[in-house]
Write a structure and sequence with these properties.
Two copies of one chain form a homodimer.
Chain A lengths: L20 H9 L1 H13 L3 E2 L9 H13 L3 E6 L2 E6 L1 H7 L3 H17 L1
Antiparallel strand pairs in A: 1-3, 2-3
Helix pairs in contact in A: 1-3, 2-5
Chain A binds a DNA duplex through helix 3.
Protein name (chains A, B): Transcriptional regulator
Organism (chains A, B): Planotetraspora mira
GO molecular function, one term (chains A, B): DNA-binding transcription factor activity
Amino acid sequence: MARPRTAARTVEHPDLSEVSLQQVLEALVDPVRRMVVSQLARAGEDKSCGTFDAPVSLSTLTHHLNVLREAGVIRQYYRGTAKLNTLRAGEMEEQFPGLLSAVVHASAAESEEGVA
Amino acid sequence: MARPRTAARTVEHPDLSEVSLQQVLEALVDPVRRMVVSQLARAGEDKSCGTFDAPVSLSTLTHHLNVLREAGVIRQYYRGTAKLNTLRAGEMEEQFPGLLSAVVHASAAESEEGVA
DNA sequence: GCCATAGTACGACCGCCATCGAAACCGGAC
DNA sequence: GTCCGGTTTCGATGGCGGTCGTACTATGGC
């Protein structure tokens, strides 16, 4: 169907007003997904699927990224062969004030404690 | 074994420093438990098991209250025949800053939206 | 054109947790 | 003492979700 060569694959993202608190909490309750979120928050910038450090297979990781995207926590977009992921921190803050930041912060605090 | 007549049944509560973020999130991810927390937050004061409005049987409700207690979210104590429940909001705020309040707030916002 | 690389879709398995009903329990009222 | 209402424990059940491997697709480089 002569799909455009550039700006090729696009990804569906929910409007945050359509996302329920339940969805967000379910997304954040899984340890692997919280790792992903933490790594995104720490990295400061976009990471591709393969660059996450997680104790699961790639297909499982894809699954987790889908859940996070559907919960409105991350945004995904293609660039070249890679699919990049970024936190929707600002929007989340608007829709669920303090929630994502509290989780990220507590998560970081817990892992520091292990180091200290 | 000659259990003391007074100050009878006591309940074990974890120190919040022993509670993991994982535990807290698992406690808060269940809709019924979030209802309980919301009702406690709104009521302002202690509620007995039987006074919660939840679409589950009493035995299930007991189970949920146990989970919340073990996660450090609520404190329980006996008074007469009743077992009262109260939020450990202050302690939670210290250990997991912003977390419980964000969830309670978002929860309230969502139910208001249904009303509006 | 071909190949290599990155990610995805699908289907199956398995363990965990919410749920219930019924029976036991405990404290207080009488 | 006996009864009663409130709460808990136990065991069984059912469904959902995390996990994996494999087969597949798509993009970019050669």
